[in-house]
Amino acid sequence: MRHTGAPSPRLLRRLNANAVLSYLRAADVGTGSDLMAWTGLTRASVIAVCEDLIQRGWIRELEADRQSGQQKGRPARRFELNPRAGVVLGIDIGAATTTAAVADLRGNIIARASRSFRIPEIPAAERIEIVDQACRAALAEAGAASGDVLAVSAGLAAPVDRAGNVLVTRPFWRLFDVGLRAALKDLHGWTVLLENDANLAALGERWRGTGSGVDDLVVLLASERIGAGIIESGRLLHGLSGAAGEMGYLDLVEGVGSSAGMAVLAREWYLAATGRPLEAPEVFAAAAGGDPAAAAVLGRLAERMARVVASLAVLLNPEQVVIGGAVAGSAGALVPGIAAWLPRFTATVPRVTVSPLGDAIVTIGAVRHALDFVEANALDLVLAARRS
Q1: What is the predicted pLDDT for the residue at 71?
Q2: Which of 59, 81, 103 is the last residue of a domain?
Q3: Distance CA 107, CA 26 (A)
């Protein structure tokens, strides 16, 4: 059958609702005129969309602003996102710990909770139970009920394809293929989206970090291992099986040789040089205090990270590369050295920055991911307050 390309009325309603919710999430209040300018819709269409969303519980109308009554005619109608419409959950699931964050529909994180796994190789049922414990603890702290959750996004330290399937061709990745989506659906009725942790870090950095608005962006999670989230022309890259951004190719890069992260190397190199065990932040602090061995470690790290960034610059030509994760708070000391080395390794030098989001970068990206789902599917979701 021939496809004309004309959008159906149902699709138009969905797109228009998505656009209105997107504006009202970012703005405190929106008038009909504001929404007309944002969406390109007529006033009648904007009001029809708003009234539909009010009836469904997504937004509410405020009293008319009579302070601006110098204008002639009827005061402008004003709308805001309903802060009680629901919440989303963003989860960061690592090998050793999991953190759940509860956020309102503006993306403000209102509660967090973390739990640790006994060992990385725990049974799937136990891993699910600990993730669920973190979610329930975060919801309790937020004063929210399970039924208030509109969507959940979980970041995994493994490749995840576009359909949410975990790539299991390596033993470490198989640790995360535990059936989390089905389990949380059975327990709570939640819609759960799975995504790679570095991909979520890229979404979080572009939303709330130094990469705000950058369409060609790479975010490196570089603590214990190096993984990359890649945004190209504003679109998150996955690849066929979700392995875009996996950094195993660094085994073949001269002067790099592995995907080991900065925290691992700082510990190992300092111990080898001095015989004294220090964690990565302590090595960075020692370098700032004038320790020559620690300074030498930072110099080696800067050159190595410059080679990593240059390899990405050659392959992807991003505008910006961001170093994120738990070591990001210390990694700013490396940026001048990385910038000095980069022109030796690539003709397309990106801007290099350090994320301000710290170890929350994945949960922030997961919240963004869940909000995107909620906006796109608002007309299909029934809010807890509206359920019979």
Answers
A1: 54
A2: 81
A3: 9
